[in-house]
Write a structure and sequence with these properties.
0% strand, 12 helices, mainly alpha
Length: 233
């Protein structure tokens, strides 16, 4: 669960792409590169307790060495899956395709591996996947549509500036105080909404708060995404 919730940190993250649209000064390549170190830190910090608990509780003690999967055999079997992020990030960094096209490439690569390499996909299974994707996308798009209306209403009514000033005042004018309030708020909201909806609703409110403190908006976007992931977990 903890590892799955951090998927919005790993490129190509749709949440980062939406954030980049809302905050043009934070480009998609900058966000993707900026999240590499935090993403790796999250990975390491998940591995450490898992390893500690496995050793402490002696997980897998009943298995013989012969029954355990060999490292290089497992690595070879996983090589096609491991090639996906290399293809996506490599294509983005070399300029072969845009972030949107990278998502298409990921789908094409997955279909190729499923149909040709593993031969586990069938046309019937593909149809079921398309239907499931349509249902999931429809739910997300309804939420995104309503979030966009809310953001537009806030901007039209002119309530963004008073709310931003109120947040700064609530934090006592201290950058750390304001940041703490924002991060706690994002963790709580992350329990109920997905990252895209949170960005659409709250970026127009939070970005004006970040500007008086001269926070780097790429760093701020990564931090927002990280705390949304914590909330989802």
């Amino acid at each position: 669960a903890a590892a799955g919730s951090t998927d919005i940190l790993i490129p190509p993250s749709v949440a980062f792409i939406v954030y980049s649209v809302l905050v043009p000064s934070a480009t998609v390549p900058a966000l993707f590169v900026g999240v590499i170190i935090p993403g790796l830190l999250a990975c390491v910090m998940l591995i450490i307790p898992a390893l500690f608990l496995s050793l402490h509780h002696n997980f897998g003690a009943g298995q013989s060495d012969e029954s355990r999967p060999k490292f290089w055999e497992s690595f070879k079997e996983a090589s096609w899956a491991l090639a996906a992020p290399v293809l996506i990030l490599g294509g983005l960094r070399t300029g072969w395709f845009t972030p949107t096209e990278a998502a298409v490439m990921a789908v094409v690569f997955g279909l190729f591996v499923g149909f040709v390499v593993y031969r586990s996909l069938t046309l019937k299974a593909l149809f079921a996947l398309l239907v499931e994707s349509a249902e999931t996308s429809a739910v997300i798009l309804v939420v995104v549509g309503l979030a966009s209306v809310f953001a537009w209403a806030c901007s039209t009514l002119g309530i963004v500036d008073p709310i931003s000033k109120g947040l700064v005042a609530l934090g006592g004018g201290s950058s750390l105080g304001v940041l703490f309030i924002l991060m706690v708020f994002l963790v709580v909201v992350g329990m109920f909404l997905d990252g895209i909806s949170i960005f659409l609703i709250f970026c127009p409110l939070f970005v004006p708060v970040a500007q008086p403190f001269d926070w780097d908006l790429v760093w701020f976007g990564v931090l927002m995404t990280y705390h949304v992931a914590l909330g989802q977990f």
